[in-house]
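Sequence in, structure out. Go.
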Amino acid sequence: SSGINAEYGYYRGLLHHYLDKFRGSQDTGPLVLTPLFLLLGLAIPVWVRYGVFSTSSLQYRSSTSLLQALLPYTGVMTIGIGDACAAVIGSSFGRFKLPGSHKTLEGLFGNMGGQILFLLVVRPYLAWGWSRAGDVVVVAAVVVITSLMEVYTCDIDNLMLPIYACLCFTVV
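Output:
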């Protein structure tokens, strides 16, 4: 029994050492939520698109639209690309602080630019056409709004940004 406890303590210490780097301000107790929120932020859009949360009131159009094609990628677009670009560009080149935030204008533009670049790169691989010009407007609005949300959302942006983008893409 004491051998099992000693081994458990070793792995516990090892996990604590590596996960401590990823703690956010919401991670005050024994549960580290930041990586969990990141995983959920990446997974929820896929679940929504492919029917895990589907209900009779959430029906997709028969033809694949831009919004449907992008829906499973909203987590990657908003936090995997946008949030990462904002962090790298904002911390490397940021000079102009945004009002009410410690984040920078350069980081905000980095977020938007990263998301737009992502859309341009994945566009040839998605099955959609330009049949609904309104979809392009919705995508552009989502890029701008999620970039602004990333600036002013505290701690849980890894979960909130993809959920917001998902809602926009499914409701519109």
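Check: The mean pLDDT is 82. DSSP finds seven helices and no strands in the chain.
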